[in-house]
Amino acid sequence: MKKTGFFLTLSSLGILFFLYLPLFAVAIFSVNNARYGLTWKGFTLDWYWKMLQNEDVLNATFNTLLLALISTLVATALGTALAIGMENFPWGKRLRSMLDSVLHLPVITPDIILAAALVVVFSFLRYLFSSFEGSGGFFGALFHPGLPTMVIGHITFQTAFVALVVRSRIDSVGHQVEAAARDLYAGNLYLLRRVTLPLLMPGIIAGAMLAFTLSLDDFVISFFTSGPKSTTLPLLIYASVRRGITPEIHALSTVILLVTVTLVFTFERMTRLQSRKEEKNQ
User: Fold this and answer.
1) Cβ neighbours of 22 (radius 10 Å)
2) pLDDT in tens, 41-85
3) CATH code of domain 48-281
4) Where does residue 187 rank: exposed (0-12), middle (13-18), buried (19+ CB within 10 A)?
5) CA 59-234-256 angle, 5° bins
6) How wide is the angle at C-alpha 229 spanned by C-alphas 223 and 230, nearest 5°?
7) Distance (Å, whole) CA 226 – CA 248
């Protein structure tokens, strides 16, 4: 047993080492005074300052945050409504099974397949609306490659993740409180505002943070649906790497990593606090 435990511990440490070593190396090179090569030439934060003065980085940061914020807000609302509807409506057994499969489809489908499908759909919608005059031209312009198509693409996969997280929260909470509220003659709107949503809020926040993080890090769908003026940080890093890796890219990658890690730890902390509050109330 001791040998098995030692082997598992050693294997786990080795996996963590190979997993986080590249990230640690990027962070080290972001504060290395050498612009080229792997030689350490002293500590500096100049690359971060130059990154903040780079207009392309600032525009990409604005596009990334705007895209993540809009898509997360819409996906959170849609995912929450979808989860509540799937749990509370008396669906038939076969229909519920089909809805579960549809809900998991964006999660298990490879990004490249989903991105290619979005390109085909947007092309069809542009062709469809181009045949109409007046408002058709306006709606057709929404499906040209750019920020609107990127928002739609991100919402497509974010909604499923939010719905799955909220559904898990519904399963853990149960329906006893809602049933008690209905016994006390609570209306549907009052029940939703004062009972259902407060109970599901930890799951809603968790789903929103997950969706926001996925949007920040997404590359494939953004690449297929982006336009010339809608470059995001992952797209900028990809284009910069093809021209040659610079310390500014290391600094930018480190900042994105720190933001993602901060969101994960914040979510984990909020989950723990909520669990402790629920344990005290019980």
Assistant:
1) 9
2) 888 888 888 888 888 888 888 999 899 999 999 999 999 999 888
3) 1.10.3720.10
4) exposed
5) 85
6) 45
7) 23
**The pLDDT of residue 162:** 92
DSSP per residue, 139-150: HHHHTSTTHHHH
93-108 and 147-173 helices cross at what angle (nearest 10)?
130
Residue with tokens 């890093």: 237
Number of helices (H), then strands (E), belonging to the chain: the values are: 13, 0
- How far is Cα of residue 136 from the mean position of the Cα atoms in its chain? 31
Query: pLDDT for 154-209, tens place per residue?
Result: 999 999 999 998 888 888 777 676 767 766 666 677 677 777 788 888 888 888 98
Q: What is the pLDDT of residues 210-263, one digit of tens each?
A: 899 889 889 999 999 998 888 898 898 888 777 777 788 888 888 888 887 887
Taking alpha carbons only, the member of 258, 209, 191, 273 closest to residue 27 is 258
At CB < 8 A and 24+ separation, what contacts does 240-247 make? 246/35, 247/29, 247/30, 247/32, 247/34, 247/35, 247/47
Mean pLDDT of 113-129: 88
d(CA 171, CA 117): 32
Give dist(CA 105, CA 84) in Å, integer.
19
Report domain extents, the chain. Answer: 48-281
Q: How far apart are CA 82 and CA 100, in angstroms?
A: 11
Alpha carbon dihedral 106, 111, 114, 115, in 10-degree steps, equals: 140
Would you state the structure tokens that stand for residue 125, as one six-digit string? Answer: 């919608």
* Element spanning 85, H or E: helix 55-88
- What's the pTM value of the predicted model, to 2 decimals? 0.80
Based on its alpha-carbon atoms, the radius of gyration of the chain, rounded to whole angstroms, reads 23
